[in-house]
DNA sequence: ACCCAGGACTGAT
DNA sequence: ATCAGTCATGGG
């Protein structure tokens, strides 16, 4: 499986396609990056539950994605052979960094185990790439992700942008700074459907704004030490810390275990056996999936969550032995 | 009405 | 070290 899996971008009808509102014209922004279609599958990459600021529109029959990386607005125009990325402010280097351009895909695939589930996942979404997001935005967004579905995380994320973020271009709101969310107050955050997550988001915004955790400094720390710092923040546990390390700090060895990944491990890799503790699962992931296990995790996650292969799904829940199942047989003997 | 969702936290064994 | 309860909200 070490080849050809990611060379062709699969089109799978089972994947949900985002709504495509029509758009009259595009901003005339400079071209900053060209990506081969064999390298990047925009739908898989931007809808796989790693980034939440991207939306698709159609312009002249073309699918165009709009989103941001840090302070930079972006448009990604899909093409048959290549996609083009445009931005009014971003440098080519910034765009390339975000889209992980230059990633050695051959080496990535060669590092993966030759197991049937990885093959299935790569056949399904081999063109998915893990993008490099800004650390604070990633941290804040994944605090909001706890026990929420991907579309709801997107809604919350965009709500935070529109409500508290600066509009840097028409219709493009930057993600609010730690100071902005700290100043907003927990109650104002709670009004964006955050529920119990508002406390953690606000507490973390206050802590980061006060410099109690220096997010920029984590860039230079070993992954384990950076994780130890992240989990000191309110609302941040092991899973969210691993998401931040993987998506916001470019650590491919971070392996987030959420309910889907746990289900994948239980159903596909430990079938019939007792599922080890999270700690031991991390060690299994290290030995089985290798140094790029975070990427492997994301292929498996996106494949199973969107395609829902029956082998990976839990059997339909057994009806609770409700004693009241039937009117019973009519009494009288 | 019930179950689930890219969990974290608390207080019991 | 594990384990249930709890925390809000929206969708199926």
Structure described in brief:
The chain is an alpha+beta fold and 333 residues long. Helices cover 42% and strands 11% of the residues.
Structure, described:
This protein is an alpha+beta fold. The protein has a domain at 133-249: Endonuclease III, domain 1 (Orthogonal Bundle), CATH 1.10.340.30. It is 42% helix and 11% strand. It contains 14 helices and seven strands. It has helices spanning 42-46, 92-98, 105-111, 116-125, 135-143, 150-164, 178-184, 186-194, 197-209, 223-230, 238-248, 259-269, 278-289, 293-307, and strands spanning 31-36, 55-59, 62-69, 72-77, 82-86, 167-169, 172-173. It has a five-stranded antiparallel beta sheet, covered by helices on one side. A hairpin with a 2-residue loop joins β6 and β7 (172-173). α5 runs antiparallel to α11 (238-248) and α8 (186-194) crosses α9 (197-209). The longest helix has 15 residues, at 150-164. The chain is globular. It binds a DNA duplex (13 and 12 nucleotides) through α6, α8, α9, α11 and α12.
- Using only C-alpha atoms, the radius of gyration works out to 21 Å
pLDDT below 50 for ≥5 consecutive residues: which ranges? 1-17, 319-333
Give the overall shape.
Answer: globular
Taking all residues together, what is the mean pLDDT? 90
CATH topology annotation of the domain at 133-249? Endonuclease III, domain 1
CATH class of the domain at 133-249, please? Answer: Mainly Alpha
Spatial separation of the terminal alpha carbons: 66 Å
Q: Which second-level CATH architecture of the domain at 133-249 applies?
A: Orthogonal Bundle
For the record, what is the CATH homologous superfamily label of the domain at 133-249?
Hypothetical protein, domain 2
Number of helices: 14
The main pleated sheet reads as: 5 strands, antiparallel
- Total beta strand runs: 7
Which strands sit side by side, in order, in the main sheet?
1-5-4-3-2
Order of helices and strands: EHEEEEHHHHHEEHHHHHHHH
State the helical fraction. Answer: 40-55%
**Beta-strand residue percentage:** 5-15%
Going by helix content, strand content and strand pairing, the class is: alpha+beta
């Amino acid at each position: 499986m070490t080849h050809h899996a990611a060379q062709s971008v699969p089109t799978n009808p089972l994947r949900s396609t985002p709504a495509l509102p029509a758009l009259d014209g595009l901003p005339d922004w400079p071209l900053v990056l060209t990506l081969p279609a064999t390298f990047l599958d925009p739908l898989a990459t931007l809808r796989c539950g790693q980034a939440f600021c991207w939306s698709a529109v159609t312009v002249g029959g073309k699918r165009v994605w709009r989103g941001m990386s840090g302070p930079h607005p972006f448009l990604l125009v899909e093409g048959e052979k290549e996609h083009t990325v445009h931005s009014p402010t971003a440098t080519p280097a910034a765009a390339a960094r975000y889209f992980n351009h230059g990633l050695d895909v051959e080496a990535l695939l060669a590092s993966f185990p030759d197991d049937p589930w990885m093959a299935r996942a790569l056949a399904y979404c081999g063109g998915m790439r893990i993008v490099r997001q800004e650390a604070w935005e990633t941290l804040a967004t994944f605090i909001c992700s706890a026990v929420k579905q991907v579309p709801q995380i997107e809604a919350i994320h965009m709500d935070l942008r529109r409500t508290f973020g600066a509009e840097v271009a028409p219709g493009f709101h930057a993600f609010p700074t730690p100071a902005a969310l700290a100043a907003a107050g927990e109650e104002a955050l709670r009004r964006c459907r955050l529920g119990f997550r508002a406390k953690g988001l606000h507490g973390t915004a206050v802590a980061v704004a006060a410099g109690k955790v220096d997010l920029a400094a984590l860039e230079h720390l070993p992954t384990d030490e950076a994780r130890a710092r992240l989990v000191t923040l309110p609302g941040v546990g092991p899973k969210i810390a691993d998401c931040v390390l993987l998506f916001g700090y470019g650590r491919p060895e971070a392996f987030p275990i959420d309910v889907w990944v746990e289900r994948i491990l239980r159903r596909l890799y430990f079938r019939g056996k007792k599922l080890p503790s999270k700690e031991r699962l991390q060690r299994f992931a290290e030995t089985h999936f290798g140094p790029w296990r975070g990427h492997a995790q994301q292929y498996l996650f996106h494949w199973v969550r969107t395609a829902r292969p029956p082998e990976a799904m839990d059997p339909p829940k057994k009806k609770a032995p409700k004693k009241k199942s039937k009117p019973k047989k009519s009494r009288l003997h």
